[in-house]
Amino acid sequence: MKSAKLTAFLNYLEAQNDRVTAAALANYFKVSTRTIRNYVSTINDESPIIASNSNGYKLMMQENRNVKTASLQTQDTPSKRMNMMLKELIVNTEGLDIFDLSEKIFVSTSTIESDMMSANHLILPFHMKVKRRGNRLILEGEESEKRKLMSHIITQEASPQFLSTVSVQEIFEEYDIVQLKKIVTGILERYNLLINEYTINSILLHLVITMDRIRNNQSIEHNLHARNVKSNLEMNAAIDIADSIGAEYGIVFNEAERYYLMLLLSSKTTLLNYQSLTPDTLPNFVDKHYIDLVYTLLEKVKESYFIDLTEDEFIVKFTLHIRNLIFRARNKQWSRNPLTYSFKDTYPLIHEISVFISNELQKLENISIVEDEIAFISFHIGSFFERKKELETKILCAVVCPNYYGMQLNLVQKIETKFKDVIEIMQVDSEIDHLHHTNSIEFIISTLPMKSLHIPTIFVHPFITTEDFEQIQKLIVKLSERKNILNVKNYLEMFFDEDLFLRNIYLNSAEDYIKFMSQRLFEKHYVKEDYCDSVLEREKMSSTAFNNNVAVPHSITMDANRTGACIIINEKPVRWGEEKVQIITMIAINKTERQLFSHVFESFINILSEWENIKELTKAMDYQDFVNKITLLMDET
């Protein structure tokens, strides 16, 4: 059993305030309750730190938990010895006496020799080798590769959840990591370069390793040519960071060290003002090759998964990410993702799409992509779906206002503060002609007089007034009502079919209607041929006619090929057992679509249970009239 799983399990229990049932834990970790019991048994094997009773599991003393976590992370003793040996060899450039090392880590020299063979296999990707010369062990390889190896070892030994600034501080006590972070983030912000919390700590780790090596006279000396530089922003930022750190700690970064730092910044930073970028302006900041590459990847996703990711904001962010990813791959500057394992298990479809994109990218660019980078792609795709879901409930607008002495920013901030829960500002510009008139924009707020547009537009004062807010509020209510109606209509049309809407069909009995409507559903491939038998069996149990001129015949089971409804509206009532009906709705439900259909189904049945609604619906002259009437009724409920 992998220790990462057990550590994640402990971390989750630690975050809970009360006991957690085995079923809840099994659901969270996507495993069986038996596996959860095995987790607890394994962890409690040496020292009991998880209490259990009929109400579930709870973590006990924090001190014991820390001890146990440490033991779980380091239970592979040969791996621990190997990492310790490699760290000692990196620090001691002149080499180590094998007998001294043997005494230091309490193992025999033969064990060290065995570990050395394993270590050479581990460090192969770093182009290094441990060699024995007499009684001395020496690590041969480039200085830059030694630093990568040191970073790799420390990262592997750190918490699987996150390599925090606290963790880095514990490893390098002589450096003030908080102050170092302030220096780095402040300079990056000055150059409009953005770095997220997932990668800032890996940069800090790199910096302190670099500082420590320079202090021990192990600078990178060979000349490096500034190739594949994205822009001079990263180089200027690297120079400023090196100068600031040099002044703070008395450390001199030579030209090669500065270029090495620039490579790191180039692989992990993004333009801070990406929110002002659009697919149209993106070529001004990013090589067209990366933009074309992203469109190619997204087209392949659409062909294979029928998912369209070509939304403006996603394209901008994803293009910047792919450019950085390729840069990291070519320079072997990988970003570690602490949530790789949990994201893969929690969002399997998003992970599958990310793997597909990574495989295509590897073939197109002739690069290798590690699993941590696949998880970062998953973040982007997951964020796209979350964003799309959020925007479905909001009214989307654009703001037009001159950018004069902060007027534009002030206006946008006030509008967002007032209406943040109901609207989303998608575009901001100083001129109406610069807006992208897409179907997504539902209205415009402008401080400039403008000609009549096909999009609703509200004129407001530059210093927005109470009356302006009231105007905006009224339009939002109106647009929200319209949006709700359209959403209901879209749902209805997802399950209703014009070919299955019929008027004035007069048959002799309920059984005749059931046979007739079942046949129509079968011909349209909604149900299997024996569907009628199942509906008749249900009807024998109890009549599906209401006492308000409605019958809703249906099957006992949700065994339809797909969800749909056949509807008959008669001007004159017909006999249905002991009742008379004018509206007959035969509903076929597919089990996998039940949750999606439930909202429509419940609202539809509620409407059919009201006599006034029935009178209104029987007036429908055709399918479209019926859908319009029921849409309005559903929107009112």
UniProtKB/TrEMBL annotation:
Keywords, in A-Z order: Activator, Repeat, Sugar transport, Transcription, Transcription regulation, Transport
Name the record gives this protein: PTS sugar transporter subunit IIA
InterPro entries, A to Z: BglG_antiterminators (IPR050661), HTH_11 (IPR013196), Mga_HTH (IPR007737), PRD (IPR011608), PRD_sf (IPR036634), PTrfase/Anion_transptr (IPR016152), PTS_EIIA_type-2_dom (IPR002178), WH-like_DNA-bd_sf (IPR036388)
Residue ranges annotated for the PRD domain, each copy included: 171-275, 285-391
Segments forming domain PTS EIIA type-2: 494-637
Superkingdom as given in the UniProt entry: Bacteria
PANTHER family cross-referenced by the UniProt entry: CRYPTIC BETA-GLUCOSIDE BGL OPERON ANTITERMINATOR, TRANSCRIPTIONAL REGULATOR MANR
PROSITE patterns noted in UniProt: PRD_2 (PS51372), PTS_EIIA_TYPE_2 (PS51094)
